[in-house]
Amino acid sequence: MTRSPLLPRNTAIALGVVALHVGGLWALQSGLLRRAVELVVPAEVLVEFIEPAKPIITPPPPAPRVKPQPVQQAPRQPAPLPPLPVATPDPTPAPDAPTGTSQPQPPAPPITAPVATAPPAPAPADPPAPPRIELPSSNADYLNNPRPAYPPLSKRLGEQGKVVVRVFIETNGSASKAEIAQSSGFDRLDQTALDTVRRWRYVPGKRAGTPEAMWFNVPINFVLE
Questions:
Q1: Of 131, 135, 132, 133, whose CA–CA distance to 203 is shortest?
Q2: Own/partner pairs, 25-28, CB within 8 angstroms, 24+ separation
């Protein structure tokens, strides 16, 4: 029994090419080819895609310009003057100089300034004399002032004493006010003296000759005989 001869070489190559095409089409449809392409992409390409953006660097502001300060020149020192010639005394006397001794002059008497004397102070003026004051009076005969009546009850009880009544005398001689300045110690005697003095007439007081209203003390004695 004889074996069939093997397939020719060209036929095998053609079948292999057909199988590769069929496998490529199948790979495109199933996505395997895309994955293979992604795996084959070189790493350099991926690095370029994920490289971060470079930061923007702003230039620093220019430094402020400093104005140059004017340099003050030191004042020039004046040039020193040449030294002046100094005179030296010559002990040799001059041929025309007078000879002899000089007498010292007596000192002049001191001049004394006249002492100014102050004028005498004027004598103080005498103070004006106070105006003459004339007190009122109740003793004139033409006034006809009656004596105060002694209270009968005071006589029986033996009441006696001195009463001083302070009266304000008007310029017409009437008594406008009256009050007890000193009590006798008994109300009946004080009231009798007060009523009597109010009814009297008076010579008005005067100041420098002019009638003037003023206060006047009128004493009244109550004495049992």
A1: 135
A2: none
* pLDDT average, residue stretch 27-32: 61
Q: For tokens 């009546």, name the residue.
A: 149
pLDDT range class, residue 34, cuts 50, 70, 90: low
- Rounded CA-CA distance 191/163 in Å is 10
Q: Kindly give the interhelix angle for 9-30 and 32-40, rounded to the nearest 10 degrees.
A: 90
C-alpha to C-alpha distance for 201 and 139, rounded to whole angstroms: 10
**Residue 34 is inside which H or E element, if any?**
helix 32-40
The closest of 156, 150, 138 to 200, measured between CA atoms, is 138
Domain boundaries, the chain: 10-49, 133-222
Q: Which CATH superfamily includes the segment(s) 133-222? A: TonB (3.30.2420.10)
pLDDT number for residue 102: 47
Round the average pLDDT of the chain to a whole number and report it.
75
Q: What is the 3-state secondary structure (H, E, C) of 36-84?
A: HHHHHCCHHHHHHHHCCCCCCCCCCCCCCCCCCCCCCCCCCCCCCCCCC
